Amino acid sequence: MKDDTKTPPVRTHQGDFHWDGVEVLKYKQEGSAPFKDVTRQVLFGDAAFPAQLRYFAVAPGGWTTLERHEHVHAVMVIRGAGRCIIGDKSYDLKLHDLVNVPPLTWHQFHAAPEKPLGFLCMVPTERDRPQLPMQEDLVKLGQILET
Ligand code: MN
């Protein structure tokens, strides 16, 4: 865990969803899971606090990994528009919508074709590894996306 004791009280927004002292990271290790055009920034990750707040930017037409895990996500859209799959349903997303991802529920975020999708995502600091779908899960979930 990185030492956050040196995090200043205020980190200024530089514009365009970049903040002083906040690095733009790879969403995941390349090749570790399927995804397209996603970056990750850890806004709050203090070891003294049991949660992290991250900002994810999905470029137009991009998407996050379809996955599930025991830990939950609390999400707020703060840029652009798109769609998400939560469980067995697909939902349109617009600015300031809130998304709850319950435990062990398939989820995926898609940016709109012409707009990015940027969202805050709160997670517990201690969390289990994401599970990826098997072929049979993909068949079921594929039907959701087509409808
Ligand atoms: Mn997840």
Jot down its keywords:
147 residues; mainly beta; 3-stranded antiparallel beta sheet; binds manganese (II) ion
Secondary structure topology:
Blueprint: E1 13-15, E2 18-19, E3 25-26, E4 36-44, E5 51-63, E6 73-80, E7 82-86, E8 89-93, E9 98-101, E10 107-111, E11 117-124, H1 135-146
Antiparallel strand pairs: 1-2, 3-4, 4-5, 5-11, 6-9, 6-11, 7-8, 7-10
The protein binds manganese (II) ion.
Explained architecture:
The protein is mostly beta strands. It has a single domain, classed as Jelly Rolls, CATH 2.60.120. It is built from one helix and eleven strands; from the N terminus they run βββββββββββα. It is globular, with a radius of gyration of 15 Å. The termini are far apart. The chain binds manganese (II) ion.
Proportion of residues in extended strands: 35-45%
Strand order of the largest sheet: 3-4-5-11-6-9
Q: Which small compounds were modeled alongside the protein?
A: manganese (II) ion
Structural class: mainly beta
Radius of gyration: 15 Å
Judging from the principal axes of the Cα atoms, what is the shape? Answer: globular
Rounded to the nearest angstrom, the distance between the terminal CA atoms is 42 Å
Number of domains: 1
Helix content: under 10%
**For the report, how would you describe the main beta sheet?**
6 strands, antiparallel
- Overall pLDDT confidence: 92
CATH architecture: Sandwich
* SSE order, one letter for each helix or strand: EEEEEEEEEEEH
CATH topology: Jelly Rolls
CATH first level: which class?
A: Mainly Beta
How many β-strands, per DSSP? Answer: 11
Total of DSSP H or I helical runs spanning 4+ residues: 1
CATH superfamily grouping: Jelly Rolls
Regions with pLDDT < 50 over 5+ consecutive residues?
none
